[in-house]
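Appendix B, example 12.
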Amino acid sequence: MVYRGLAAHPLLNPDLVAGRDLRDDLLDRITMTVFLEGREPLRSGAAFDARIAELRGGLGLPALEISRTVQGALEQLARIQAALPKVAAPAATDIRSQLAWLAPAGFLLTTPRERLQEFPRYLKAIEQRIEKLGRDSRRDAQLTAEIAPLETRYRERVKAERGLRPPGEDEFRWMLEEFRVSLFAQQLGTRATVSARRLGDAWIVRERLSLE
């Protein structure tokens, strides 16, 4: 029910709308992971048949891993959605905006496996943020102010690019998510060291690549 109720991305993938079937998208995600991601494009029917024959025996472990990750993430999403109505407006608005980009309708199809594996930590950071809000809402507002201009600039660029660089494949987009973890739930750790300064440097690189 949680997956089916996810809203479409605010800017991208208009074909991925609310009401999607979890089983169908999960099967597609597993297929993409095992047969397509990180591999040469399939250019013929013979190549397709050969890859299926070669890799079909390796479906079990990725399927189990992805299914468990997704199940856990959806349980976390359900808890967050249940808690949000009790959260003060500024923080609730920010969290809803974050989730609209992190877990829109069909996110299983647009999120690379390596990033999907990080969802439990990203969502745990949101849960811990909500827990802390009741004790120090002023601190939460200060932390939100640190990331807000960075995210606004990024989202405006994505809108201008019209999906030229999908967020799922954009390293800067995931640096923003890691920065949120470092701000609101530092004890969970990040994949790599991240800060406002490092994001600023990464933005310069991203802008340079956009011009090439």
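The chain is about 65% helix and 0% strand. The CA atoms of residues 108 and 128 lie 24 Å apart.
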